[in-house]
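Researcher: Next entry in the queue.
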Amino acid sequence: MKIYLTTLILFFSFAATSFSSVAQAALSFQQVYPKDYASGLSWVKAQQALLKKKLGKNAARLVSVVFPEVARYSIWRDYAETNALERLYVTYGATYADFSIGYCQMKPSWVEQLEQLIQQYQLSSFQQLIVFSSTTPSLIRKERIERLSNLQWQLAYLAAFYEVAKIMYKLPQPSVGFLAALYNRGFAEKKTIEYWQSVKAFPWGSQSRKLQFSYAAVATAFYQEEAKNLF
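Model: Structure for this entry, 231 residues:
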């Protein structure tokens, strides 16, 4: 009898856990974080004209790529992080201080790599992104921070990112999922980016035990449900 009861307890415990896992898996980012989603969508609509102007025909795809970052963006946190770390970055570089800035949450190290790729692929349309008013490393870093703090510059970086991705991975029209994984993971081998598309590490990071989502899946869902109708 004790064995029977133990078996029943284990069965129902397993069933409850399985049901909970399935239920969680069925939830969308929008359902779990409705306020953040609504805030992100509101921002996109408010900036719609500028986004269209700066991103052109790729606006729907690229806005979707950064939407997860926009949705969780905190002005207060960004201000605190930027003011605490920008001096370290300007003085010592990204090795000592690397932090996300602005609605698109771009890091100085990511932009540095993007600048190198723009130069490597000789993308003449984006030469303004690799030209600085000084040749002194610390002053270049200071100017880069100033650019990152400006939305129009971030959109210019985003447009360049798309062109670099096409060349780097030999994809005439990369999917939103691939672009989002690349944006979230950083420039890496193609197979790494393809794998990252399904990794559920957003918004809390890969070490967290909280309910997580694939960054690429959140971006793709936004593209299908919102962005295609907005741009």
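Model: The mean pLDDT is 88.
Researcher: Noted, moving on.
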